[in-house]
Known about the structure:
This protein has nine helices and seven strands; from the N terminus they run E-H-E-H-E-H-E-H-E-H-H-E-H-H-H-E. It has helices at residues 14-25, 39-51, 66-80, 104-132, 169-172, 177-187, 212-215, 220-226, 237-247, and strands spanning 5-9, 29-34, 56-60, 85-88, 136-141, 192-199, 259-262. Strand 2, helix 2 (39-51) and strand 3 form a beta-alpha-beta unit. Helix 1 crosses helix 9 (237-247) and helix 3 runs parallel beside helix 4 (104-132). The longest helix has 29 residues, at 104-132. Belongs to the short-chain dehydrogenases/reductases (SDR) family.
Amino acid sequence: MTTRVALITGAAQGIGEAISLRLADDGIDVALLDIHTKEQQLAALANKIAGKGRRAFVVPADVSSEEDVKSAIEKTVENLGSLDIMVANAGILGKLGPMLEASVEDFRRVHAVNVEGVFLCYKYAAEQMIKQGRGGRIIGSFSFSMSGIALNESHFRRGICCREERHVFDITLSPSSDATYDIAQEFAPHGITVNAYAPGVILTAMTALPGDEELGGHGMTLKKVVGAPPSLAVGEPLEVAELVAYLIKPEAKFVTGQCVSINGGMFFD
Ligand SMILES: NC(=O)c1ccc[n+]([C@@H]2O[C@H](COP(=O)([O-])OP(=O)(O)OC[C@H]3O[C@@H](n4cnc5c(N)ncnc54)[C@H](O)[C@@H]3O)[C@@H](O)[C@H]2O)c1
């Protein structure tokens, strides 16, 4: 079988880094995308992946820029030969707090990265996969285990419609389960599956917040903000990476249109 190629966004650290390493373990060549200031981290990761005997290509880019996403996909194909798997993992945590204290600039930036960025990655990856004619895998990242059923809905649809919710409107901006389902239907005739993971609190730089120490450690502030009990389990990036490793397998072709919660039982979904 031809070696498959994955493009992972937000690859420099956290969940994206873990996914990159995990996919390399499964014999996949990887293009590592993150913002320009993370180029050194990307280079170090590329070295680790080369040490596993896989090809890694560093492609600094901003997922909120259409030009950047198009060009990152073109460069991936030029350098690694194809694009078979897109993991639209990059995301940012907006400023936590009540809406009255939020600025429109904050809102727009989170929307640009977490919603438009995912839209661009899905669209241009699918275009390339359809051109190749051998199917593919598209994976998105949801914000905080909110797949549209328990806490929010309709954050990312064809017409891009979003709404603010609770104190955490900024972290709820992400693709919804409706969109995942819809897009999966559209791409199914091309042999492309579309799924997403919806993490609970995973121990990464994103969830290390001021106030953690007082509350009892990494992840505690976020648990408080999302209304989770302090005793709720937290996860490691590798746990999410293992789920992605399954979803991208050729054998997982029957799994599509799903958002899989991986949240330590944060809520029933
Ligand atoms: N950690 C959690 O508990 C958690 C929970 C739910 C969802 N998520 C989601 O999982 C994904 C990964 O999160 P993480 O915890 O590893 O976060 P992280 O902050 O450790 O890593 C995110 C990476 O995305 C990159 N990035 C940010 N904006 C970008 C842009 N415009 N273009 C390209 N890259 C960009 C960052 O530079 C960073 O390297 C995010 O989408 C996040 O919203 C994380």
